[in-house]
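It is worth pausing here to work through a concrete case rather than discussing structure prediction in the abstract. The textbook approach is simple: state the sequence, then state the predicted structure, then interpret. We follow exactly that order.
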Amino acid sequence: MIKKNLPLGVDDFKEARENDFYLVDKSMFIDELLEKKSKVTLLPRPRRFGKTLNMSMLKYFFDIENKESNKTLFNNLAITATDKMIYFGEYPVIYISLKDIKVDNWELCLNKLGLLLKSEATKHGLSLGEERAEQENALLTLSAALYKKYDKKVIILIDEYDTPLVTAYSQGYYNDAIFFFRNFLSAGLKGNPYLEFSVLTGILRIAKESIFSGLNNLTVSSLLDSDFNHFGLTEDEVVELLKYYELEYEVEDVKKWYNGYKFGKSCVYNPWSIINFASKNELNSYWVNTSDNSLIKELLNKNDSKVFEELELIFKGDTIWEAISENIIFDDLNNINTIWSLMLFSGYLTYEEARVSSITGLKSYSLKIPNAEIKSFFRQSFIEVYTKGDVHFYGTMMEDLFLGNLNSFTSKFKKMYLSAISYHDSADSEKYYHHFMLGLLLTLGDKYTITSNRESGYGRYDIALEPKDKRNYGLIFEFKTSDKDSIEEKAREALAQINEKKYDVSMKNNGVLKIIKIGMAFSGKDVAIESQVD
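Step two, the predicted structure:
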């Protein structure tokens, strides 16, 4: 039997239906939207979880201008068996997607938005001026014109509303952008007499001086909520897809790689990764390579001790408890706690449960890495941060360590460190270097159980890597800081401390027969290394 094509890169509902691509039926999203029918609904979800496809489905369902040609698009979908079909093709629809407004300055951003709004007006046989004031009021102006044309209120759909704002923050023109978009959205969504209802999607709920200021008709449903869970793929939907493409034998591996996201009470898979896996029949990182991940990497690059200590836990499969704010304030990104909210809503972490403190009343969530694909992202990010992007060099250096080629490892590490340390403020604190090393070594979590500051023998080692395959080398690290003149002596002291305090006892008791002991001493951009193999 000839299989349907997979909708790789296809996010337009009409294109997917007319070309008979494999499509999971999410049409009951329309039913829930009409049941609740808030004036303005904001649905933040991670990227590539089907937001654009669902939004274009709404456009074709409600669109009054192409009612007859759109009707066949919904043949055999669940929505046709409901009473909501009375709303089919009954409204003029304004649909704009801001996902491609990613430019490096405010003037280009404004120009690109102007072209987008002008194009939308032209589709309706309308015209729109190019002045800034006309652009700020574009949603209201188009609503009034369409209401006059059809004598019906308008549905406004805005996909990826926050993309230009996230880009503006990373490119340094955030204040200009936030001021404009607050006025732009307010004009179209607040007190617009021609508005039937509006739906917005994005990744984050941006809160600085609230972009939705005064919008008292706004309903928000984030991935922490149990409604509007029509994004992502359920396990049943994934099993059906894999069976259709005769890949059902891969279910457990696929689950390990792409499952683990929790939206409300539902556990979902990443649809972008599933589609790519089904197309290539290869387990790989697909989703994390579709964006520059700049905000996440910026926060990781801060090398904050609390972040690294908690990332150490989640790399081992544990969970951490953190307070989560649904309102992301970009001015707070220097507050490292913001990283957990950003990672959760962007899809880099997931949560298992929530609890409310009986003392403070504050709500916190248990966070973890959802799957192997995201774990590979963190591994890659650490490598890029600490090796100046030389992934191959890092790989050969770690192979030397794994195989016990200590002279080669030492030579490569010194070369890498001299380059990488320029990306951080070197310090005289042993804790700083401890976290620098931990960031490098966390990437080895597939082959080792990594622990830090644990008791063994007569003291606490700095970092230990116990091999999951006991035939391989175990690794024990001890770190010292020093002035430049005594750095070699301090490295010898660090190695001697491992032996004197018998830090290898726990590992030997667990059946590890070969252990590499490494003493390191740091002084600014200089490092000395002493090692031995037992």
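Step three, interpretation. The mean pLDDT is 89. The radius of gyration is 27 Å.
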